[in-house]
UniProtKB/TrEMBL annotation:
Species assigned in the record: Stomoxys calcitrans (Stable fly)
Gene: 106086014
All residue ranges annotated as the SET domain in the record: 53-298
Disordered: annotated segments: 1-48
One Pfam family this sequence matches: SET
Full protein name: SET domain-containing protein
InterPro entries: SET_dom, SET_dom_sf, SET_SmydA-8
Biased composition (Basic residues): 1-19
Basic and acidic residues biased stretches: 39-48
Domain of life: Eukaryota
GO terms assigned for molecular function: N-methyltransferase activity; protein methyltransferase activity; S-adenosylmethionine-dependent methyltransferase activity
Amino acid sequence: MPNKKNKNKKKNNHHHHNNQHQQKPQHSQNGSHEDEVEEQLKNLKLDDKKPEQAYRVAMSEIYGRYLVANRDIKPGEVLIREPALAIGPCVSADPVCLGCYMPVSLKITQYRCPSCHWPMCGPNCRGNNHPKGHTFAECDLFKKENAAAPLTPTASPEQVKNLYELVLVVRILLLKKLHPELYERIMIMESHLEMRKKNSELWSHYESNVVTYLREKWHLAEQFSTEEIHTVCGILDVNCFEIGQNFAKARTLYPSAFLLAHDCCPNTAHTDDPETYDIILRTSRNVRKDETITLSYAYTLQGTLKRREFMQAGKLFWCCCKRCSDPYELGTDCSAIVCAKCKTGLIRSINPLEQEGEWKCDKCSFTLTYKEVVKLLDKINNDLESIDPHDVPGLENFIKRYSGSLGPNHYLLLSAKYSLCQLYGKIEGYLLPNLSLEDLKRKQTYCRDFLKVVDILEPKLTRLRALIMYELHAPLLVLAQHLMMQKLISSRDFQKTIKEVIYLLKESSMILKMEPVGSTEYQMALAAEEALEKMGG
């Protein structure tokens, strides 16, 4: 599936991150808490190269705080570049180094911190004894409580996930004494604590897995109250970003990026610097004056049901953006299901904002209940998840099997197609020189299918669009060369294809060069430039 950078904000759906959180002014001694927050909002720092008037912080009684364009903003403008306030491992069953967040194992041979015995990448990890990595204070606590003891080769995925979930929470709590000003800036952020208390399943999870564990097993009860720890958990759920480059994965809190509103068809894109973990946020398309500046905290290439479910579960609000309100998802039809009765119609939600509402065929009026749709999608998704990520025949069979059940642009079919776009030409047995004409045609078709949807949901200067454009250039070029040698196309048609290939390489290179130096995407930009040079483009 396409790489998710998001992590995880709103226009008519701002209410979540937006009734939010600000960093506290460090020099304010008087006035109310709200006054301090408002003062901080006025003084948010932008990238030094960009004028402060690019955006302003707006306030709505319904939606809270969010960012609005002060002027027309062109695609590619850097709006925010800022360092993380706190960083730690993602909540995952996959162990990572506490210093640099690269994958590690739990094998006996894996290097571990000599003091606390937590798995690390090696003795020279750049994040060892570093504020954004494995600090002395953290190490002392882990050593004292023998925290890494459960991380054995036989540890269950649940044990691993539960332990790694604690790390960033602890790092923030330790700031209270070590860096109180940072702690204050974080604790001002929105936690939706009262809403979380009403969600028994959510509250119970954090009460048992985090709060009780830290207070009783790690003996932090005297330093931190139950509510204080719950607040930190809420702040992370509502405001954190998932970042990562070159296999590293982490979650972070930033001073002002959290203010961006959520929208399922956003007008900005963000990346992170692999060396500093700074977030870099740019406009991805033209943003008009007074337009809300948005970012997607859900995965844009999922259907409306799943996106809204994700936002409600983690961010505690139901998204009501233009895309979520449209049964056709802005013309992409990413959620449409083929009618099992008439076989010719497509079934869509009658009212997507009614999460558990009916779905209806556009030809024969056959209906499905919410539960029936969820059951069907879960089954198909489980089938997709069971396929090895590098199994080309398995993915092809998945597409063949479910093309009669799902609409042509359904997000589950798109996921399989995206995987194949990346596999054809890249893995053993399917390297570019060995691809059959049929394989090349399939790759070309899948790239075009995917790009058609991305051009609507993540248009202009977006990473995903650039990646798929780069993938598309190769089958186009090889097929054109083959057809020309066989004299199956005219010179004019050949030149037309070459022009498209040059456009794809130039566009993808231009977009991917906005990524940090050293990132995989930046390396791909250089590869695109090299291909252009060879073509004389």
